Amino acid sequence: MNEVNHQRIKSNGIWIHVAEQGTGPLVILLHGFPENWYSWRHQINFLANHGYHVVAPDMRGYGDSDSPLTPSSYTTFHLAGDIIGLMDHFHQEKAYLVGIDWGAYAGWHVSLFRPDRVMGFVALSIPYRPRSSTIKDTELLRKSIGDGCHIIQFQEPGRAERAFARYDYLTVMKKFFTITEDDFVAPPDTEIIDYLRTPWSLPPWITEEDLQVFAEKFEESGFTGPLNYYRAMDLNWELLAPWQGSIIRVPTKFIAGDKDIGFESYRTKEYVLGEAFKSYVLDIEVVIIEDGHHFIQQEKPQQVNNEILSFLQKHSVG
């Protein structure tokens, strides 16, 4: 099997860096915060060896992709447009999508907007939640969780950037990638980055060298682009009004760890295992991985790889 190839592709008006390997049906891997294409290092070669053309972009704002400055350049429409643009670049009418965290959010909305372009979708960590008709997501979070919620703290331009700057980039990565708390909320008058502990040792699934790969890219690009995803949330709520009450019909598998952030405290477990989730996503299979945390594709790569592959094979075309 060939090595992973890297290139920058013009998509949806910006340049997007992608890591690419293999031939066959197109599978696009979409990372979350605070990651980049490298977070899929365990999946790229595995899927390529099983007969797929695997493309893992740095999402807009991350790594070697362009990073527009304004939050209004990070709406769900921009994210979906980037992904459709990648399909068009590779001359593929349809693709499989796999996404985690914000990458899952993007995949859910490509599936909602353009089901004609998605053969199947594997979502990790973040389930689809329908838009509230009465309250914005940030208002709901502020009321239910409080100002210690990281999403609320990330809303103010510059606030999180200033807080992160008190630490070196490697320490910021260590703090985020080793989160084990279910209830991920800072105490009053405390920045979330200060609340997160710096581990004395790393868990066995990630090395200091791995974290340095992420740290070096954030040192080059900064955090404003990734934080702009959060700052576009209220705008997304406004833009998604025409899809109020819409359902997703694309074949989907949802994978989460039973120790993911908020799995218990935010009632994610109750939601994804209940009937409501199935009423919004009609063709859904739910897999819960024991002792799995948020960065599940890195922490439990073999289990996640097998779940992705079984889904792709089940929904193969032709």
From TrEMBL:
Highest taxon listed in the record's lineage: Eukaryota
Enzyme class, spelled out: hydrolase
MF-aspect GO terms: epoxide hydrolase activity
Keywords: Hydrolase
EC number: 3.3.2.10
Pathways per UniProt: Secondary metabolite biosynthesis; terpenoid biosynthesis
Ranges of residues in domain AB hydrolase-1: 25-129
Keyword RNA-binding appears in the UniProt entry: no
Function per UniProt: Epoxide hydrolase involved in the biosynthesis of cucurbitacin and mogroside tetracyclic triterpene natural products (e.g. siamenoside I and mogrosides IV, V and VI). Cucurbitacins have cytotoxic properties and exhibit deterrent taste as a defense barrier against herbivores. Mogrosides are nonsugar highly oxygenated compounds used as high-intensity zero-calorie sweeteners; they also possess pharmacological properties such as regulating immunity, lowering blood sugar and lipid levels, protecting the liver, and acting as antioxidants and antitumor agents.
Quaternary assembly: Homodimer.
The protein's name: soluble epoxide hydrolase
Species this protein is from: Cannabis sativa
